[in-house]
Inverse folding.
């Protein structure tokens, strides 16, 4: 039960930071306009969707627990960099932050339901 809560919490927190907070950060600190920031976050979500499909196949081969641990580790260590990129005001860095977020999101999200059903 506790593991299920932790997995659900981690993906919820990651999605909130990667979507809502990132867009607000890009607008307020990065001085990007609302439309540009929205497009960047939309690209991140599109990439996350594609990556979830790919990583889902990978996690079936190598085990969802390992993939999720890699994703959680990535979130822990790379989130500060993603935040810095989001507030940079540089379009390339802001996009790169969303790409990193999309990979992390996929690493956590793809095996999530399989892991939750095991606990």
């Amino acid at each position: 039960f506790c593991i299920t809560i932790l997995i659900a919490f981690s993906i919820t927190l990651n999605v909130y930071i990667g979507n809502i907070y990132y867009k607000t950060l890009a607008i307020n600190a990065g001085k990007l306009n609302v439309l540009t920031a929205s497009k960047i976050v939309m690209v991140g979500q599109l990439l996350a969707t594609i990556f979830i499909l790919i990583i889902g196949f990978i996690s079936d081969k190598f085990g969802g627990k390992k993939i999720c641990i890699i994703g959680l580790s990535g979130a822990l260590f790379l989130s500060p960099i993603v935040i810095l990129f989001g507030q940079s005001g540089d379009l390339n860095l802001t996009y790169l932050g969303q790409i990193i977020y999309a990979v992390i999101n996929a690493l956590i999200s793809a095996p999530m339901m399989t892991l939750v059903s095991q606990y």
Summary: The mean pLDDT is 92.
